[in-house]
Amino acid sequence: MALLDIQNIDVSYGRHLTVKDCSIELEQGQICSVVGESGSGKTTVIRAVLGLLPGGGEVTRGDIVYDGKSLLKLSKREWRALRGHDISMIFQDSGAMMNQTRLIGGSFVEYIRTHEGISKQDAWKKGAEMLSRMRLPDPDRIMRSYPFQLSGGMRQRVGIAMGMTYQPKLLLADEPTSALDVTTQAQIVRQMMELRDEYGTSIIIVTHDIGVASYMADRVVVMKDGRIEDQGNRDHILNHSENEYTRRLIAAVPSLGGKRYV
Amino acid sequence: MFEDSEVLLEARHVTRRFPTSSGKELIACNDVNLKLYRGKTLGLVGESGCGKSTFMRFLVWLDKPTEGEIIYHGQDITKLKGKALHEMRQHIQMVFQDPSTSFNPKMKIRDIVCEPLLNYHRIRRSEKDRKARELLQMVDLPGDFADRYPHNMSGGQRQRVAIARALALEPEIIVMDEATSALDVSVQETIIQLITKLQREKNITIGFICHNLGFIQSFSHQIAVMYLGNIVEVMPGDQLSQVCCHPYSKALLNAVFDTKMDFSKKIEPIKGEPPSPLDVPAGCPFQDRCEHCKDRCRHEKPVLTEIGPGHEVACHLYGKGAEA
User: Fold this and answer.
1) Which pairing describes strands B311-313 and B230-236: parallel, antiparallel, or unpaired?
2) Contact A256/B257 with Cβ under 8 angstroms?
3) Which end of chain A is more exposed for a tag (fewer CB within 10 A), N or C?
4) Crossing angle, helix A182-199 and helix A152-164, to 10 degrees?
């Protein structure tokens, strides 16, 4: 049985239909990339999975089934237990998603104590240990820092560490490397690949960087104007797709030693 | 480097120091020497904070170097003032990264693209409409867009308007600071096609800042790699992947993801992040992240040495006195 099964969902903001008839299936340990241009609805889809649609957004048709259960009918309480425990999310800039006026350690402790009844000291220790597991140097200093004191790459790794605290089965990543330099991007991509290898985490990564998407993914989903234009395994999408839009999108990706314009 | 092309602009020993509150100096550009050739593109790559934008901003007088000179048509443009500076500005124009923040949201596109022309009294007010249409058509936009506001357009269209505005005065040099980073790949491609087409037609020199080597090599004649304020390698754009040899350039190259790469290959990113530019180590700036680091790199700073045609590198592994 698939770990996550998005079945023909429509997502609307008010009267505006943003995502139409979208179906994605994900097995345990699989990585799926969702690519597309800005405004194609790719972020909306994964936000819907975590029940995090911004104001007025709702799934109006179809169903999202996680581990045999429908996610659309969960109570607030059930959501709290699931989010950050079974399903985690990494945002484009994890630092900006944290409270700017609190220490990273403070946010981390609060998060851990939401899911586990342990003392603050133990939660702090657990957080620091998680940071060092994610190979962040000097975890105690990071715990005592504010988000703005860290570089973009560090903040992103802190975000990944937080998301991975309970070894979720499903990790949703929304443009996790878009704001980073190429070298830092490579580090983060590698780290996410290792999560899959070590913990068997399934990952859905939403990105407009088709290079990153194809390096990471087993399956690639191409979205356009709120619809799934094309999906298939990586090799099929990159080399054998018959969809014209997919082919055009792939051809536009600059490639080393590829097309030169001068 | 390019026999068929003259040196249009030359930066000599350009250094920029910023004072900081702690009393230390931040060296954003350290002894940068670069040449821009007529009708060619210079791509400047590096991580954020390496000083690439700081350098390009000197060319358009958004900042002044602390030391060094920038020679353009026989004069040092960093010393220009008043009328002479005003006259010179029209020959070097700039396109910014995010076109939505570099336009006045209350101005119509017509006024945006014609403003530089009016500033230099090149056209009369009555000619604005005709000229705006002409400029918009040059960047493959319908002339009717003249009546729109910047927020009525997509990012790609706005970037085309930004290019039209920069080209309005028919400058010799255009500086583009990450001009395509905010755009989708398919739009990115069309913008690059447009830029290179206009470059061929008008023989414009372009200084392009970018952090993606894979992308910049597709349209640059010359590529300079910058690290912590220092130029570490300059190479011809068409041979990038064959000739590039500085460990940092190689690391940048390895960090490029594209659709034709070998997916089974494990990526080996360089470790860590660049040190703070406030305490740049003595010796080679790249020493702490370099796997070839030797004793010599710790105390002696490598200088740019020519090792091939149009190919210079600052690394103790290459050039004179290299240890094999």
Assistant:
1) antiparallel
2) no
3) N
4) 10
Residue A92's pLDDT is 86
Per DSSP bridges, beta strands A170-174 and A57-66 are unpaired
Q: Which residue has the tokens 């350009």?
A: B14
Q: Which residue do the tokens 């400029």 mark?
A: B135
Distance from the Cα of A72 to chain B's closest Cα (Å) equals: 32
Min Cα separation A68/chain B (Å): 32
Helix or strand (DSSP H, E) at A232: strand A227-233
DSSP summary character for residue B276? P
Cβ of A185 within 8 Å of Cβ of B238? The answer is no
The neighbouring-strand residues paired with B227 are B230
- Alpha carbon distance A101, B246 (integer Å): 41
Mean pLDDT (whole number) for B311-321: 83
Strand partners, B71: B10, B76
Confidence (pTM): 0.86
* Whether the predicted pLDDT of B323 surpasses 60: no
For residue B227, the Cα-to-chain-centroid distance in whole angstroms is 14
Mean pLDDT, residues B221-233: 93
Helix axes B155-167, B128-138, angle to 10 degrees: 120
Helix (H, G, I), strand (E, B) or coil at B279: helix
The partner residues of B175 in beta bridges, in order of sequence, read B94, B207
**Is the CB of A255 inside 8 Å of chain B's CB atoms?**
yes
Measured distance between the N- and C-terminal CA atoms of chain A, rounded to whole angstroms? 51
Which amino acid belongs to residue A89?
M
Given a cut of 70, is residue A86 above it in pLDDT? Answer: yes
**Which residues in chain B are contacts of A249 at CB distance < 8 A?**
185-186
Sheet holding B222-227, edge to edge: B92-95, B173-177, B205-210, B41-45, B222-227, B230-236, B311-313, B305-308
Question: Mind telling me how many Å the CA of B89 is from chain A's nearest CA?
Answer: 27
pLDDT at residue number B94: 93
Q: Any chain B CB within 8 A of the CB of A28?
A: no
> Of B155, B186, B256, which is closest to A256 when you measure between CB atoms?
B256
Tally of CB atoms within 10 A around B293: 16
Q: What is the pLDDT of residue A126?
A: 94
The radius of gyration of chain B from alpha carbons, rounded to an integer in Å, stands at 21
One-character DSSP codes across B108-164: -HHHHHHHHHHHTT-S-GGGHHHHHHHHHHHTT--GGGGGS-GGGS-HHHHHHHHHH
0.85 surpassed by complex ipTM: no
Cα–Cα distance, B110 to B17 (Å, whole number): 39
Tell whether the model's pLDDT for residue A50 goes beyond 70: yes
Mean pLDDT of the A219-230 span: 93
The pairing of beta strand B222-227 with beta strand A69-70:
unpaired
Q: Which residues of B touch A190 (CB under 8 A)?
A: 266-267, 269
